[in-house]
Specification:
The structure holds 2 protein chains of 2 kinds. By secondary structure, chain A is an alpha+beta fold. Chain A has 3 helices and 10 strands; from the N terminus they run H-H-E-E-E-E-E-E-E-E-E-E-H. Chain A is elongated, with a radius of gyration of 25 Å.
Chain lengths: 218, 543
């Protein structure tokens, strides 16, 4: 199932998200173990014994110091988590001033078109799944929109998705670091063929990409 | 407590007409509860059909058109017709009793709300009888998918009208609850003595009052778009596809707390009774409820991180903050059990199941409030797992806890303990077997609302496990139904206060007379029935 239950990150941006996930996973595990542990301890320690005399336990109602503590400690914890989230997000959302490659992605019921700047436009529907070709170690700018309803561009291996919304243009950068072919889905329910509205992403060395762009899709 | 006074109570009429025309809050409560449980049964069957379809990849149990209607009606019914209305039904039955009032503030309005809720639900389901079938755009009905150009069927219009009717009914009820608690409390029942459940219902009602009008407006705009040539959500004519989401989630996130705050109240009532201690940190729990309610009005756009059109850090931080008051409640519940004398009757089992499951849903909730995690998790099965841990593992378990706990008060007889434990363990194990694997499905890349998935890798195995778990849950529900049937033949009277509980509803007969109380015990603290049982103790003592 991959490292820490996420797919292995294959873009620069995905590495930021993966380490952010790892932090939350660890923090969540610690909190869960403490709370479940306290519940289990209380149940075992203070379960009513069969046949024991039913005396009323101490009717303790409040302890201000304790209550302030368990308000402030989680408050500090979420502030720390927020700082890391803020940093990771800033890195993921950052746009380089001059991307190496620009692709206009249009989502529609039920397919994708990938328009390469200075190159071809590749199109394909759910019966003939299109492929997005990207150069390795270069920054690709994606300009995303939709021509009918909401869709979402999702490549699980990139740990990233972004909605394609009609009437809106959304921009983000991807910098793949590993060659390979990756699965992409539409992630926003868009009607009956939503489940089949896939695409694939092929990351190739920059030289191969330049050759591919010139010769056009085979 | 005298039991002889039960015979003094005027016997209410029990024929069908008297139930249809009733304005008695207890009968309306029971009508609400029964109706919402029937809707739960239907929505549960739809869920079983969904899980059966997904048992293996490329399955053909239902067609793709049917599948979209299944998950739309499942989500709509569970949210609008079960989890929220069950809380309204429970509050209908309990609020006047808990504050020592003879009825709700507006009994006729109360009846109106119930009948609107019943028929609103039927209107939604009526879509299934139309030519193109019921609505098929998910319970979120995102525009422009739900616009007339794409979703041409009458089913979508019936969905809009039905949900609109239910939302108006809910707003009316919230006004009724707030007025009842503020105006109709018995002498001695100061605000800081009302039971936690009543407090949580005040917070819930304020949320309903603020959030549901946004939904109603959203639905009206969509209805105008579809039927009268409007273009509110149509970008081709200057409309905005994002507007639907903003209005929907401005309602939708507070709605999450409408579906959980009442059940925080249920848990806060049950844990003290079975720990033989007062609720720990009463003031903190009440303030936490209002902190959650307030914060939840400012987090709606965390459902929209992946649109790239909202201020992610603001909504992320506000969402993180909700973990703080929720944590306060958890610590208070644990402190209530700490040093107590804990017994494990069925209501307590379900309450403990709530603690275990809801914690996981809360933790994944903090995770997906972090945009870099949400970019992967959003609209995947991770979200499906998260929200079912909150609403299924949380609210549903609290609902069963409430049914077992207040059943004797409603019907004068207990549900059986042995069968109750069976249904708890079946539901608890079944629930976790169903929904734990969904976290991993989502992280592996399975989008939600799909009728088939990648046949390679781990998805087929995880899905088969989840389907098996859902059948286990179904058996748990059947055991509960069997329990209802067999316990109906029990003739053992349960008495006024079978659990040795705390709040005023246990001071009257089971079931209570039409006017609720012959006389009230003195109210000197937040647990008058405990004080009456222990006259040797000073009600204002804090230890």
């Amino acid at each position: 199932m991959g490292r820490s239950w996420w797919p292995q990150p294959v873009t620069t941006q995905a590495s930021l998200m993966a380490s952010n996930w790892l932090l939350f996973l660890c923090a969540g595990a610690v909190v869960a173990l403490i709370i479940w542990g306290l519940v289990a301890f209380a149940l075992l320690r203070w379960r009513r014994k069969r046949g024991a005399a039913t005396t009323l336990p101490a009717q303790l109602r409040t302890n201000i110091a304790l209550e302030i503590t368990w308000t402030l400690v989680p408050l500090v914890l979420v502030c720390i988590l927020f700082i890391y989230t803020y940093r990771a997000e800033a890195g993921v959302e950052a746009l380089v001033p001059y991307p190496d490659v620009t692709v206009a992605v249009n989502a529609y019921r039920w397919g994708w078109s990938f328009g390469y700047r200075g190159g071809p436009t590749v199109q394909g529907s759910f019966s003939d799944v299109p492929q997005l070709v990207l150069p390795r170690n270069e920054t690709t700018r994606i300009i995303l929109t939709s021509s009918d309803v909401n869709h979402a561009f999702w490549v699980p291996a990139f740990l990233f998705k972004r909605d394609a919304i009609p009437g809106r243009i959304t921009v983000f950068d991807l910098r793949p670091e590993k060659d390979g072919t990756y699965v992409g889905h539409c992630a926003e329910f868009c009607g009956y063929a939503h489940a089949l509205m896939g695409f694939s992403v092929k990351v190739v060395p920059p030289a191969d990409y330049a050759r591919w762009l010139k010769s056009g899709p085979s | 407590m005298t039991t002889a006074r039960a015979t003094l109570a005027r016997q209410p009429r029990a024929d069908l007409l008297s139930w249809i025309t009733t304005t008695d809050h207890k009968r309306i409560g029971i009508l609400y509860l029964t109706t919402s449980l029937v809707y739960f049964g239907v929505a549960g069957l739809l869920a079983l059909a969904i899980r059966t379809q997904l048992a293996r990849p490329a399955n053909d149990f239902v067609g793709v058109h049917t599948y979209a209607q299944l998950f739309t009606l499942h989500g709509t019914a569970m949210i609008f017709l079960f989890v929220a209305p069950f809380a309204l039904g429970l509050a209908n039955f309990l609020l006047p009793l808990q504050i020592g009032a003879p009825d709700m503030a507006f009994p006729r309005l109360n009846a109106t709300s119930y009948w609107m809720f019943l028929f609103g639900g039927l209107v939604i389901f009526a879509g299934a009888a139309t030519n193109e079938g019921a609505a098929a755009t998910g319970w979120t009905a995102y525009a422009p998918l739900s616009e007339i150009k794409i979703s041409t069927g009458l089913g979508q219009d019936l969905w809009i009208v039905g949900v609109f009717i239910v939302s108006v009914a809910t707003i009316l009820t919230s006004i009724n609850f707030i007025t009842t608690v503020f105006v109709y409390r018995a002498p001695g029942m100061t605000m800081w003595r009302i039971p936690i459940f009543a407090w949580e219902m005040v917070a819930t009602s304020l949320l309903i009052f603020m959030a549901f009008p946004a939904l109603a407006a959203d639905l009206l705009l969509l209805f105008v778009d579809r039927n009268f040539g409007g273009h509110a959500f149509d970008p081709a004519y200057g409309g905005s596809a994002l507007l639907w989401q903003h209005l929907f989630w401005f309602f939708g996130h507070p709605e999450v707390y409408v579906m959980i705050l009442p059940y925080f109240g249920v848990i806060s009532e049950i844990i003290p009774v079975f720990s033989r201690k007062p609720i720990f940190g009463y003031t903190g729990i009440v303030l936490a409820a209002f902190a959650i309610a307030g914060l939840s009005m400012g987090v709606w756009a965390h459902h929209m991180f992946t649109t790239g059109a909202v201020d992610d850090p603001f909504f992320s931080f506000m969402s993180f903050l909700i973990a703080v008051p929720t944590g306060v409640k958890f610590f208070d519940w644990i402190a209530t059990m700490w040093g107590g004398s804990i017994s494990f009757e069925t209501p307590m089992l379900f309450a403990l199941g709530f603690l275990v499951n809801f914690l996981l849903g809360g933790i994944t909730g903090v995770m997906i409030a972090s945009p870099p995690i949400d970019f992967q998790a959003h609209q995947s099965y991770f979200i499906v797992a998260h929200m079912h841990y909150v609403l299924g593992g949380g609210s549903l378990f609290a609902i069963f806890a409430a049914l077992f706990f207040w059943w004797p008060k409603m019907f004068g007889r207990k549900l059986r303990e042995g069968l109750g434990a069976w249904s708890f363990w079946l539901l608890f194990i079944g629930f976790n077997v169903t929904f734990l694997p969904m976290h991993f499905m989502g992280l592996e890349g399975m989008p939600r609302r799909v009728y088939t998935y990648d046949a390679t890798g781990v998805l087929p195995l995880l899905n088969a496990i989840a389907t098996a778990g859902s059948y286990l849950m179904a058996i748990g529900v059947l055991v509960f139904l069997w329990n209802v049937v067999v316990s109906a033949f029990d003739r053992t009277p349960v008495g006024d206060d079978p659990w040795e509980a705390n709040s005023l509803e246990w001071a009257t007969t089971s079931p209570p007379p039409e006017y609720n109380f012959d006389r009230l015990p003195p109210i000197r603290s937040d647990r008058p029935v405990f004080d009456a049982r222990h006259p040797e103790r000073d009600p204002s003592a804090v230890r």
